[in-house]
Amino acid sequence: MSVLLKDIIASIQADINFDTVSETINTISIDSRSSQNNEKTLFFALVGPNHDAHIYIEELINKGIRYFVVNHVPQELESKANFLLVEDTLKALQDFASYYRSLFHFPVIGITGSNGKTIVKEWLNFLLAPDYNVIRSPKSYNSQVGVPLSVIGINEHHNFGIFEAGISTVGEMSHLQQIIKPTIGILTNIGSAHDEGFDNISQKIKEKLRLFTEVEVLILNKNKTIEAFLNKNIKTFTWSTQDRNADVFFQKNTYEDYSELNITYNQLCFKVNIPFTDEASLENVMHCVLTLLYLKYSQETIQERIAELYPVEMRLKVKNGSNNCTLIDDSYSSDFQSLKIALDFLENQNQHKKRALILSDIFQSGLSDEELYSRVSQLIISHKINRVFCIGETVSKFKNKFLNAVSFQTTEDFIKAFEDLNFANETILIKGSRQFEFENIVSLLEEKTHETVLEINLNAISHNLNYFKSKLNPKTKLMVMVKAFGYGSGSYEIAKLLAHHKVDYLGVAFADEGIELCKAGIELPIMVMNPEMTSFQSIIQYGLEPEIYSFRGLKAFLKIAEEKKLENYPIHIKINTGMNRLGFDTEMLPELVEILSHSKRVTIKSILSHLASSDVPEHKDFTLQQITDFDNDSTYLMKGLNINPIRHICNTSGISNYPGAQFDMVRLGIGLYGVSNESHEQSKLEHVGTLKSVISQIRTIEIGESVSYVRRFIATRKTKVATIPIGYADGISRLWGSGVGYVLVNNKKAPILGSICMDMLMVDVTDINCFEGGEVIIFGKDPSVNDIAKATNTIPYEILTSISARVKRVFYRE
Ligand SMILES: *Cc1c(COP(=O)(O)O)cnc(C)c1O
């Protein structure tokens, strides 16, 4: 894009602190981490309930960004950059997007509804791509922020738009309507998702329909309830599988692995085959068929293209590769917009110094090849990619634009040469459009482990972090506990995200955990809760901060500090207030003051204690006593030593149940990972980890036959049994077996049959439609970690941290 700054200023009605306005802006950014930020970027400092991007401005100015949309000018920066002052930076972003959209005049499809938006959008893009230069929302960018960013991606070569809009409460859709300005509307369906934001279903319907106030046609499933809410002058184009009065009537037949739709439309009667059998996919196809009919596509083209539809994978996945590589798998799309997103994602994963990109031809950018690949080359350079592998005829022609590029005509050629490419110790982004079948490359590069994975949703972690932040007083600092491999979820990835969110401290249990984080480039201060004396040397070497809880530890640390002539080395003093685990007792404090007042080697960064029972209401008096004792004991130390350290005592349930005990900092643990022992709070958290596996084998056994060791299960009916390659060595408690627990197969509960083995378990799939190789969910939303903990008489902490290291962790963002 290239827009005059003065037009932007007018469109968002900003006050400015500078006068040269003849300049142009070429990128809009809301992400401080994006390396596409440059001197022609306009950065919108968005503010949410729990985050405020104004904190990144100083850092961005140092990186050369000059233009900022702000709701206030941060202190002392006034003279250092150009500020566009507005009341509400999100509204400004939306207003600009709306202005920008109005510069273009071509058909635009706006899609909303409770389910299927993204899939319908992706499929329509696939169906229309041969005939149009389509711009579409990347991924599932359908929010108040995502929609403006999507629309801003339009360039002068596009001639068709497809954007999705998602809302969660009243009043949001009219903003999105203004930004998308759809000419064709699609309403996928109205389900019960996200109901919290609405008083009732009619309010929700009315709000969604606001997207369609100015469309020339609205495509929807014929439905009396919805039609009653529709403005009379909106023209509809409806389908149904029941009501013959609909404009298009579908009759469907489902077979083993495909379905057939018989379509009746006016005089036209024809059939399409679809490579899907589930209800939801069929509905999505119907919306696509109506769109094609409305756009006057021929019966033959519809049949041909619909038969080619494919499952949509929208997520960027981070995987472990062999030879210590990290893979970012985005092997299903290759448009320019999503390449930008993927490169930013790569930027944030800087675990390895070396970065490689495997890239196929890019389709439908709306640009000429020359211009497109010049832009790609700029991206590649600004993201410091060390080597590029071009696959495909077109991209290969431009390989000289990329530094250090190798080209291949086809994916097969690449695979033949694979052994000689020596991938090792690097982060590799795999980005290709579907027909290049880059999944074959991914499976070559992937570390060979068994097929069980723990998927970690990074968006959910951010959500949970922000939820707990919103409970804190503005001045309260936040330490996040990433001990025990981030409660089983992987510490580096999570620490990286926490660093971005600017938490104040990380907490680990042992020095080794902290050292790993340092080595991987985490710069946040790290407190080590249980530093063994043998690790003091390396603690100092890596600048970790030990928690000191005994005289023995203190004396040993002071001795080393003396030898190394350290000055004011930060330490943390732990006080025992009733947990009776680690810490100084009240009567030890005078001696502690005595010792510390004579040492300049260390400085007390913080004083802490730990609550033993903050999650149990019956122990409220005990907990309040702990808090009072902590207040007294820490005050004694502060007076005795004349210091003013950070004080902290609350863990997750302390934050929730004792808001008055935040002192100067809190220590968030399990809540970050989406687990609460309180049902109201649980409903506010997003679940982070999903443990998945696959079916290895299916067999049917007769009445009287048994399953697993010691024949603990005997069939009382003909039973279909599926074997899953996960067992107690992976962390699945045997108590969860023998009819107590279940897994989810095809969204249905499959009870565990007999004993759980070391590496496998068997489940009952008699009434479930499933196949060998099919996916199984061990835990996630259902069953939740809490459900399993209850049934096996333990706590969620133990379940999370028991998942063994051989289970691969895969991180993703939605
Ligand atoms: C683990 C731990 C926490 C975090 O506890 P959660 O209950 O997971 O929030 C806080 N402080 C200390 C000392 C811990 O060991």
Q: How much of the sequence is in beta strands?
A: 15-25%
Number of domains: 5
Please tell me the CATH architecture of the largest domain by its name: Alpha-Beta Barrel
- Mind telling me the C-alpha Rg? 29 Å
Q: What is the CATH topology classification name of the largest domain?
A: TIM Barrel
Task: Give the % helix.
Answer: 25-40%
Spatial order of strands in the largest sheet: 21-20-19-22-18-17-41-23-32-40-37-38-39-36-33
Q: Could you write a compact summary of the structure shown?
A:
The chain is α/β, with parallel strands linked by helices. It is built from 27 helices and 41 strands. The protein has 5 domains: 3-88, Udp-n-acetylmuramoylalanyl-d-glutamate--2,6- Diaminopimelate Ligase, Chain: A, domain 1, CATH 3.40.1390.10; 104-306, Mur-like, catalytic domain (UDP-N-acetylmuramoyl-L-alanine:D-glutamate ligase); 318-447, Protein-Tyrosine Phosphatase, Chain A; 455-682, Alpha-Beta Barrel (TIM Barrel); 689-813, Lyase, Ornithine Decarboxylase, Chain A, domain 1 (Beta Barrel).
Question: What features would you describe in this structure?
Answer:
The structure is a single chain. This protein is of the alpha/beta class and 814 residues long. It folds into five domains: 86 residues, MurE/MurF, N-terminal domain (Udp-n-acetylmuramoylalanyl-d-glutamate--2,6- Diaminopimelate Ligase, Chain: A, domain 1, 3-Layer(aba) Sandwich), CATH 3.40.1390.10; 203 residues, UDP-N-acetylmuramoyl-L-alanine:D-glutamate ligase (3-Layer(aba) Sandwich); 130 residues, Alpha-Beta Complex (Protein-Tyrosine Phosphatase, Chain A); 228 residues, Alanine racemase (TIM Barrel); 125 residues, Lyase, Ornithine Decarboxylase, Chain A, domain 1, CATH 2.40.37.10. It has 27 helices and 41 strands. It has a 15-stranded mixed beta sheet with strand order 21-20-19-22-18-17-41-23-32-40-37-38-39-36-33, sandwiched between helices. A nine-stranded mixed beta sheet has the order 9-10-8-11-12-13-14-15-16. Strands 30-29-28-27-26-25-24-31 form an eight-stranded parallel beta sheet. Helix 3 packs parallel to helix 6. The radius of gyration is 29 Å and the shape is globular. The mean pLDDT is 93. The structure holds pyridoxal-5'-phosphate. Pyridoxal-5'-phosphate binds next to strand 31.
